[in-house]
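User: tokens in, sequence out, please.
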């Protein structure tokens, strides 16, 4: 691979009312290491082509299937694709990419069903292509630092994880306003079997896996639909048994009036505790038994070598959500370079296709448990 920018495709993320295409484009372009090469940005052919032109993509396509097969024929084909459609097309778009030799950075939840996710796991393993799932918060440096501390044994054996994600934007019938993000998120055909759980409960559960390095083996869940006329849950409360014998609580809600994206976690071990919240995301609180509470400040305190290149500014200048997303793009880009034999620092182990599938296994078990009045329900193992 000659020294060049990587070529990125995008599926979804276009149109005037769209949310998450913009943050991904900012993230892709942030380090000047990649370009917006190919786009199938909307669900209609005309819309897709018009958006690709408006947003200065080099090549526009009418739909993602054509994009993957046509790109595969080119000498300068895309290196990876960013999938940022509603959840119902993640599977088909990711499958089409992998089958055409294209790496994938896919939005969460990975698919509509666990079965689809497992198929992507198989396909990713058989092709050996890079695959990252956009659990954005895992790209925040203080979340990565928490993971480093836990994996180094700083807080001992993990006894408990508390993970939470409250939002308030669906506390009323927001979907009746026509807001497109609300409309498809409350539709099981587009969103999946759990509304709140799939949309934000998966982010909270990923802290159990990414930061604590553990996974749920059984869950007892209560999924509630508080707003009348809605089919899917808008509140998601799960108690989990962990693979090491520990306990986790994973709580997410879209009806916490006044909450924004106030996601966070506590990981509690035998020798200490790490605690982080998006409302104070530049700081990581660490309590080690017998010592005063310590607060690690981004930019002020040293970071491990494994995180080199994952921060961009001197301390005191906030790095946040866009930078976190850019860090996930950095990781897939490093994986692609390494696979091509190029000199590159090691990619940080950000969540991949297995983690995305584990998120779906957690959701499916929580839905089944809730239907059975909270009965303890096994979570399918994914590896
Ligand atoms: N990781 C995060 O922090 C985070 C944050 C927000 C959204 N998301 C995820 O991003 C995805 C998109 O969410 P959003 O809020 O941006 O939705 P949105 O409704 O704002 O945008 C969806 C876009 O997909 C396009 N689209 C729909 N079907 C398509 C198809 N078949 N081919 C091409 N384009 C298609 C639509 O035209 C639209 O541009 C969801 O999976 C969501 O869960 C993740």
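Assistant: Sequence out:
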């Amino acid at each position: 691979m000659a020294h060049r920018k990587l070529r990125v495709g995008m599926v979804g993320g276009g149109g005037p009312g769209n949310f998450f295409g913009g943050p991904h484009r900012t993230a892709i372009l942030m380090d000047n290491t990649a370009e917006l090469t190919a786009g199938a940005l909307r669900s209609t052919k005309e819309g897709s082509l018009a958006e690709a032109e408006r947003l200065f993509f080099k090549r526009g396509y009418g739909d993602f299937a054509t994009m993957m097969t046509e790109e595969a024929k080119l000498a300068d084909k895309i290196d990876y694709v960013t999938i940022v459609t509603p959840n119902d097309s993640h599977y088909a778009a990711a499958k089409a990419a992998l089958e055409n030799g294209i790496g994938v950075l896919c939005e969460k939840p990975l698919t509509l069903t666990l079965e689809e996710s497992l198929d992507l796991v198989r396909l990713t393993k058989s092709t050996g292509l890079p695959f990252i799932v956009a659990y954005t918060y895992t790209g925040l440096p203080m979340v990565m630092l928490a993971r480093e501390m836990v994996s180094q044994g700083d807080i001992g054996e993990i006894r408990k994880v508390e993970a939470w994600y409250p939002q308030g934007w669906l506390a009323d019938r927001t979907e009746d306003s026509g807001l497109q993000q609300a409309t498809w998120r409350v539709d099981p055909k587009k969103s999946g079997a759990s509304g709140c759980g799939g949309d934000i409960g998966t982010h909270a559960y990923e802290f159990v896996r990414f930061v604590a390095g553990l996974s749920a083996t059984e869950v007892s869940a209560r999924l509630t639909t508080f707003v009348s006329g809605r089919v899917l849950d808008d509140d998601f409360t799960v108690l989990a048994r962990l693979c090491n014998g520990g306990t986790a609580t994973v709580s997410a809600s879209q009806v916490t009036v006044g909450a924004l994206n106030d996601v966070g976690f506590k990981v509690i071990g035998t020798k200490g505790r790490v605690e982080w919240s998006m409302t104070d995301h530049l700081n990581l609180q660490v309590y080690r038994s017998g010592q005063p509470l310590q607060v690690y400040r981004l930019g002020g305190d040293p970071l491990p070598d494994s995180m080199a290149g994952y921060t961009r500014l001197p301390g005191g200048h906030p790095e946040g959500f866009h930078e976190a997303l850019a860090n996930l793009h950095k990781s897939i880009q490093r994986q692609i370079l390494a696979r091509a034999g190029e000199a590159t620092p090691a990619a940080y182990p950000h969540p991949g296709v297995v983690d995305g599938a584990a998120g779906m296994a957690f959701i499916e078990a929580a839905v089944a448990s809730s239907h059975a009045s909270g009965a303890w329900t096994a979570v399918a193992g994914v590896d």
